[in-house]
Amino acid sequence: MTGSVLQINISRGGVPKRPVAESLATPFGLEGDICGHPEIHGGPRQAVLLIASEAVAELIARGYPLFFGALGENFTTRGLDRRLLRAGQRFRIGGAVIELTKVRAPCSTLDVYGTTLGREIYDQAVKAGDFASPRWGMSGFYAAVIQAGPVKVDDPITLESELA
Hints:
Layout: E1 2-10, E2 18-20, E3 22-26, E4 29-30, E5 48-52, H1 53-61, E6 75-78, E7 90-93, E8 96-103, H2 117-121, H3 124-127, E9 141-147, E10 149-152, E11 156-161
Parallel strand pairs: 5-6
Antiparallel strand pairs: 1-2, 1-6, 1-11, 3-4, 3-10, 5-9, 7-8, 7-11, 8-9
């Protein structure tokens, strides 16, 4: 499974996150990115958030006023099939290695884009770990940074290992 980095996003806290050309992925997240609610987001198991650009495009087609970075993702990916992503998979992104830790459960902060958005991207099946849910991966995946390193737009994303 391979893809690439379409956009790298950071913010001074909260959403939306804004694009940057490159950053340094560290065990604490992307350099220059600040979590709006560190008691909920961030930490070593939620250092970065990945969302497939294809999922964002699908939501835009359904009428949500979104753009890359709007959902708070650090990496907007291109070409990774969200339906095949699983906790425990390790990916190389540029000079960094990340490990997916869990599906992101959306919070009410995203209601700014529509009060039904949370239900569009996450349901009880996803919460239960059902990969067959049509919403699987729509909300993105948190990841730990296993190996710190530089990342930039257009870097390849390559699966290094399955379920650790």
